[in-house]
Each structure stands twice: as C-alpha cells, then as structure tokens.
Amino acid sequence: MPIARELMKQAGRWDQQPRYIFRGRLSISIMLIILLQILSACASLQMQEERLRVTIADLTPLESTLMEQRYLLKIRLQNRSREALNVDGMSFDLDLNGKRFASGVSNQQASIPGFSETMLEVKVSSTVFGLIKQFSALQDREDGRFDYRISGSLSSPDSILTLPFSEQGEINLLPGAATPNKANPE
After folding, report:
1. How many other β-carbons are positioned within 10 Å of the β-carbon of residue 169?
2. Are 113 and 80 in contact (CB under 8 A)?
3. Global pTM value
C-alpha cells in the first residue's frame, strides 16, 4: 500500500483522493435522508386517513329542473386527532344502494380543533338519470331506507396532499325522516 501512495503522490493525485471519498459519503448521506423523508411521508398518509371521519347528517331537496336536481347535504366532519384540522375545500360523490346518485364540491373553510367536529352544508347535484335509477329501488323499499356511501377528499392549506375519506351507512329518505343512522367506516 505505501508503494501505491508514493506513486499517487508522484502523479499528483494524492490530494484529490480525500475529496472523492468525501463526495461519495456526502451523496450517500443525502440519499439516506431523502429515503427517510419519503418513508415518513408514506407513514403519515395512513395516519391522515384515520384522523378524519365524514358522515351525512341530513339531506334536503332544493330546486329541480327537467335534467337536474339539487340537494342541501349536511356533512359532519369529525377530527379524531389531537392536532387541529384546517379544511379549505372538498369534492365528493354520494352513492345510494351501490349506484352513483349525486356529486358535489365545496370551497367552504373550516377549522376543526383536535378531538372535535363541525357541520358543513354543501349543495350536491343529481342528474335525472341518477334519480330514475333510485325510483325502482324506492318502490322495492317501503320503509324508505337506503344504503349510502360518501367518498371523496378534503383539501387542507396545511398539506400539499388531500385527505381521502370513504364512509357508508343507512339513510331514511321518506319526507320528514331524512336522518341517517348506522354509519360504518369502510
């Protein structure tokens, strides 16, 4: 080994060797840091999904036209973590009895303290075709109960990622009894 050092000194490359070693260690360190950040981001995604529950509190018909029906949907947002959850928008779909019924978006802002909940009122739209699909199901169900599924995502100014949600339960669509029950997380 001393012979190799002597030859490298004579060739003028002995001074450059520590620089190459340093660059190699530095790039490995940077790669490890990036890998750890990616892994921690993936771990936080699972935690985000568990911290939020979205359920339907009420569904009220609004105006109707030949091709579209509008409803006022009251949504309960539950923050199941100790950190505050800031929401600045959402998009979602509402399925009844396994069929797409309505969809909606909202840019309402809400701040939900830790281990707390809030209600949002959003307007949803259904096409005449979505309503026709549900008429046959309504005739089969005398009690007016429908299985529902609401799924979508919330946008937060605190994160570049959206918070996905998907909840299902049962809702009674008879006039005067539009309160859901038996919400089940998916």
Report:
1. 17
2. no
3. 0.64
* pLDDT score at 183: 52
Are 97 and 70 in contact by the 8 Å Cβ rule? The answer is no
CATH topology of domain 51-185: Immunoglobulin-like (2.60.40)
Where the chain has pLDDT below 50, the residues are: 14-16, 45-47, 177-179, 186
Residue 133's identity, in one-letter code, is: K
- Could you give phi then psi for residue 136, rounded to 5 degrees? -65, -40
Alpha-carbon distance of 98 to 137, in angstroms, equals 11
pLDDT of residue 158: 87
Q: What are phi and psi of 62, to 5 degrees?
A: -115, -130
Angle (CA) 16-18-22 rounded to 5° is: 120
Give, in order, the Cα–Cα distances in Å from 139 to each of 133, 135, 164: 11, 6, 33
Which helix (DSSP H) or strand (DSSP E) does residue 65 occupy? none
Nearest to 147 by CA among 178, 176, 168: 168
